[in-house]
Design brief:
Layout lengths: L2 H12 L5 H11 L27 H21 L8 E12 H4 L1 E11 L5 E11 L7 E8 L17 H4 L18 H4 L1 H6 L3 E6 H4 L31 H16 L5 E11 L1 H12 L5 E5 L17 H7 L22 H6 L5 E7 L7 H10 L1 H6 L21 E6 L7 H11 L2
Parallel strand pairs: 4-5, 4-6, 6-7, 7-8, 8-9
Antiparallel strand pairs: 1-2, 2-3, 3-5
The protein binds alpha-D-glucopyranuronic acid.
């Protein structure tokens, strides 16, 4: 039973970013999808984050428990919090009343970030709100997209922001490659959201940090950090997930200025690597009133100790810029981590948090995602909350509602209307 674990440990010692391709197939083949092979483990309690001192109350948690957990996760995984730029301004590029078949107001907003040292950086938000927002500000979802703003909507006059369209990162006004237009409409469900009274805003994550191991020098981090030129792979202090989270916070800055939005009711969401990012953004920025993790898996909502589905060994080598270098030491020995992913989910407390899995997404370990959500309950209880109202993973297709929410959609790795229906129910005022 431990054979595969032993091999994993051996591999962790020999695999490097440079020789990774030689081992890729073996690592993928070695991935455990057998519940019987999940090693026995016990979960560290976030109440014990500081030795010799137990978190006993919500006040303890907010005053010193949470800051200690937050500090540990910055160092071990997600990197330092990237600051707000010295100057931030929002340029309205377009505004269309009657978008989405006459149901919505659509805006495109360019976010300009500037530093006193003269450096600058910009990216574009696509924003939809229902017409009802003209009468009364509405709740809103904020999330990053994978393939450009044009991929999220069927409206073909939306500016292209995918790197593919622009042939490079940022700065290009007119894209040339239309291939991404409308390809992820079903993941964004703008029409359905607007019909139910929600606003929604998105930015292409590649505009914030190109998702490549050498994406550093074209990322928003260039505003703040020198010497990233030629940098590849994992960094001691910063991560792409940290920089993407920074982008979500800047979107929140915009939401605070947007008269159509009730800024006290903005939820952050994300799918897959962007679900990992949404959880971290919710941890970093408590202005988000709710946090939605969709199929976020390894390094997101699922427990590393289970060694089921994707592991850090894979991420550290294929996408080494996602996490800090210090995570490498846990490859193959996740049981030695002083924390696990339930601590990340607990950082959302006492706000609403939602974890969603999909039955066919074993790579993201649906059971591990449920158990991590459940593990965050110890912190929610400090606030008098019942947390997640179930002891076992629910039947697929059922919504579990509490301050911690969970569902497992029947189907593949994606974020679809079934997921959105739950998220809208949670964010409903
Ligand atoms: C890969 C990666 C996952 C990630 C996913 C995604 O599968 O291994 O960790 O969640 O991509 O972002 O689509």
């Amino acid at each position: 039973m431990t054979d595969y674990l032993e091999r994993f440990k051996e591999l962790s010692k020999v695999v490097t970013t440079d020789n990774y391709s030689d081992y890729y197939k073996e690592i993928v083949d070695l991935t455990n999808y057998d519940e019987a092979k999940v090693p026995a483990y016990s979960l560290p309690s976030a109440l014990d984050v500081l030795p010799g001192k137990k978190v006993k109350t919500a006040t303890d948690w907010m005053n010193w428990g949470r800051p200690a957990v937050f500090k540990m996760l910055q160092k071990e995984m997600y990197g330092k919090v990237v600051p707000r730029p010295d100057h931030l301004s929002f340029e309205l590029l377009s505004c269309k009343h009657g978008a989405l078949d006459g149901t919505a107001i659509r805006k495109e907003i360019r976010v300009h970030c500037g530093m006193r040292n003269g450096r600058c950086f910009k990216f574009d938000i696509l924003f939809y709100a229902p017409l009802s927002a003209l009468e009364k500000p509405v709740p809103a979802f904020v999330g990053l997209n994978f393939k450009g703003n044009e991929a999220t909507t069927e409206e073909n006059d939306v500016r292209m922001t995918s790197p593919k369209a622009n042939g490079r990162y940022r700065d290009t006004e007119n894209g040339v490659d239309e291939s991404q237009r409308g390809v992820q409409v079903e993941r964004w469900c703008f029409k359905e959201l607007v019909a139910r009274g929600f606003a929604s805003a998105t930015v292409c994550y590649e505009e914030i940090f190109p998702d490549r191991r050498d994406g550093w020098e074209n990322s928003a981090l260039t505003l703040f950090v020198d010497g990233l030129k030629g940098f590849k792979g994992a960094h001691e202090d910063y991560t792409s997930i940290g920089v993407w989270s920074w982008g979500l916070s800047r979107m929140m800055d915009y939401m605070e200025t947007e008269p159509l939005v009730d800024a006290t009711r903005v939820g952050v969401h994300g799918h897959s690597r962007l679900g990992k990012t949404a959880l971290w953004a919710g941890a970093c920025d408590q202005r988000f009133c709710a946090v939605f993790s969709n199929c976020s898996g390894c390094g997101g909502a699922s427990l590393a100790r289970r060694k089921f589905g994707e592991t850090y060994l894979f991420i550290d080598n294929v996408m080494p810029h996602w996490f800090t270098k210090s995570l490498h030491k846990y490859n193959g020995c996740e049981e030695t981590m002083p924390f696990d992913q339930h601590w990340l989910i607990a950082l959302a407390a006492p706000r609403k948090v939602s974890v969603a899995s999909a039955t066919e997404d074993l790579w993201a370990d649906p059971k591990g995602e449920f158990l991590a959500a459940k593990g965050a309950e110890e912190i929610y209880r400090l606030f008098g909350s019942k947390g997640l109202p179930a002891e076992e993973p629910p039947v697929p297709g059922i919504y579990l509602d509490g301050d911690i929410n969970y569902h497992c959609r029947i189907g593949k790795h994606n974020q679809l209307l079934f997921d959105w229906d739950h998220y809208m129910q949670i964010l409903q005022p």
